[in-house]
Design a protein that fits this description.
By secondary structure, the protein is an all-beta fold. It has strands spanning 9-12, 21-28, 32-35, 40-45, 56-61, 64-65, 69-73, 78-80, 82-86, 92-96. The chain has a domain at 9-79: SH3 type barrels. It has no helices and ten strands. The strands form three sheets. The chain has a six-stranded antiparallel β-sheet, with no helix packed on it.
């Protein structure tokens, strides 16, 4: 079980986009995440009429290392560390370390 999942709201804590917030679009298997509108790069795309792709310069999100993002806590309005806890019914859930509040319900 990962500390950060697809769809989570995260805050970037290091790098050129430090302080920016966004939702996780996907988690790559090599400990990297893609966050919407963060770490944008310009990609020069060649036109492909067969696939209906027009050429030009396209901006796209590039992956960040998972250690450079922190899960956003809506109560404190800051990034927060995440831990794991097993509930009475046997489910394993994530919780915020600062407030001990469960992330997954």
């Amino acid at each position: 079980m990962n500390r950060i999942k697809k769809g989570d709201e995260v805050v970037v804590i290091a790098g050129k986009d430090k302080g920016r917030r966004g939702a996780v679009l996907r988690v790559l298997d090599d400990e990297r995440v893609v966050v919407e509108n963060v770490n944008m790069a310009k990609r020069h795309v060649r036109p492909n009429p067969n696939a209906g792709v027009t050429g030009g310069i396209v901006e796209k999100e590039m992956p960040l290392h998972i250690s450079n993002v922190m899960l956003f806590n809506p109560v404190t309005k800051k990034g927060d560390r995440v831990g794991f806890r097993t509930l009475e019914d046997g489910r394993r859930v994530r919780f915020f370390r600062s407030s001990k509040e469960v992330v997954d319900v």
